[in-house]
């Protein structure tokens, strides 16, 4: 009833090109942002921020990065965690070695370094695709894992190989409480999502999608695969790098050599499969799903009186993830984002079926 | 002669790779870094683990040939099969448990075809890969739920005592595990049996027909669905053998599932569609890895002041990556031209 677009006419080009063309969507987004920025800090508990919302937002950034590569450009990657690791260790080294650097600058620089590494490991994509590329990105994963575990310079010669981050300071203001961390991560996530949205609907994003849909045809109409693929790798790794830096500094605080292992890469892939490939909203859905499901599995059975060992809970989690992936691949390859879109479509037409 | 020279010119990157690999293999001996006895021992050790990689890679190749599915779940199948054998063997004799596990793998193959593959026919290879990722997670969780997640033993009754051979040729002789020898023998037998199965039986011929062209095979009356069940069962059987051998050596535990990751570079190196490629690729990767760890590792550690070796974790992958750049179809794979 409320969600209806009759009477909303687009009378200028800028109105036609808005990100959210329907006025109700704009109000909804505004309300959501207002809730996230103003209400959440007031009502959220530390536990909620630290173990739910902050991981969700950071993983969503990483998932957006992966989605740009897999969902928009069609290049499969099993090595996202490696690029996150590059971002995390780059940020660590910047902060340790250049203490006066603003953390925002550190974030951008570490994203940039991750982008460079991404381009390096994306070069094989110019010759190979599909399964072969999956193996090439796995090579990146294992090599990077090893490099950060073994090369002492990266961990600042710490004896155990694990690193712990100093407190974050910027503009003379240090970030300590969970609420401050939450607001910072939220701001980064909003800015990066907006940037991604504009990238994927601009000419760069269109060239990515052309490559994804049919690379030969894209080349024929004048898209250079070299630039399209490598820019997708660069942007994707930039997002992963920033997410990695945030994950290391804000979520973990201190981490072991194998904190960014192949399991994290696979989890990120699951996020975009479940959430929806080729959809930024889907990245958020997927991240929320992956963060919430383990917590639910830990809490709910206890709450309704079923005792479950932690080992069983983790096995159950693996089984649920596995079956859900197969389910979504078969039934709804575009994931939760597609279900959301269907729901919206139904609402617009309601009460008519067509 | 001219012909040979021209082929050489066209394939110079491959030749270069092979030369580099040969130099890498011969280097330690040539530069006097090691004694011949130790060199041969390292090589044998590498060959032994290479046999294991080959076994897992074989499962990959079988499924890829027959259904075009890149089966990431092969490692999970190895773990599942080994767990089944280990737990069933606690109540019945090992041979019975082995046969029972074959049955379980056949049921599993049927379920996978029924519930997953049938619904994803004609999908993109990458989608199928992701589906097998889902199978991997499910199988890991399921296997450990019903069979338990401790470390289990499979006692094959083989002697585990190492023996010294060739005392007369090398200083101090060479240490060989009897169990490893038997394992290698079993692997060779398995490959032989598979080759016979593929070449001589009607089912094997049908499998090869499906591998060549799905549509053509179907149009002459080969039931695709049944063929897929058969090929997944065969892959399950290969996984079972690999699982029992690895399991008796290292104990049945979750890490068995990770050897699938080691088998990926093997199939890249050998070619996705070639059974001999899987074997030879496995041996190359096995030996290369051990050589890199034993001979190259210490040099790297010393030169760059690393916190320890462990380069065998990525060496196989980087080798495969380099190979991808010069010869994407692998050593023995079918050449196909794909515009990228």
Q: Quaternary status of these chains?
A: heterodimer
Mind summarizing the main beta sheet of chain A? 2 strands, antiparallel
The level-1 CATH class of chain B: Mainly Alpha
CATH architecture of chain B: Orthogonal Bundle
- Figure out the total of helices of chain A: 14
Distance, first to last CA of chain B: 34 Å
Number of domains of chain B: 1
Order of helices and strands of chain B: HHHHHHEEHHHHHHH
The class by helix and strand makeup of chain B works out as mainly alpha
The CATH topology of chain B is given as: ABC transporter involved in vitamin B12 uptake, BtuC
Low-confidence stretches of chain B: none
Euclidean distance between termini CA atoms of chain A? 15 Å
Question: Main attributes?
Answer:
heterodimer; A: 354 residues; mainly alpha; ABC transporter involved in vitamin B12 uptake, BtuC; two-stranded antiparallel sheet; two-stranded antiparallel ribbon; 14 helices; 4 strands; B: 340 residues; 72% helix; globular
Written overview of the protein:
- The complex is a heterodimer of chains A (354) and B (340).
- With 354 residues, chain A is mainly α.
- Chain A is built from 14 helices and four strands.
- Chain A has a two-stranded antiparallel ribbon. A two-stranded antiparallel sheet of chain A has the order 2-3.
- In chain A, helix 3 crosses helix 11, helix 5 packs across helix 10 and helix 12 packs across helix 14.
- The two termini of chain A are 15 Å apart.
- Chain B is mostly helical and 340 residues long.
- Chain B has a single domain, classed as Orthogonal Bundle (ABC transporter involved in vitamin B12 uptake, BtuC), CATH 1.10.3470.
- In chain B, strand 1 and strand 2 form a beta hairpin.
- Chains A and B meet through helix 6, helix 9, helix 11 and helix 13 of A and helix 6, helix 11 and helix 13 of B.
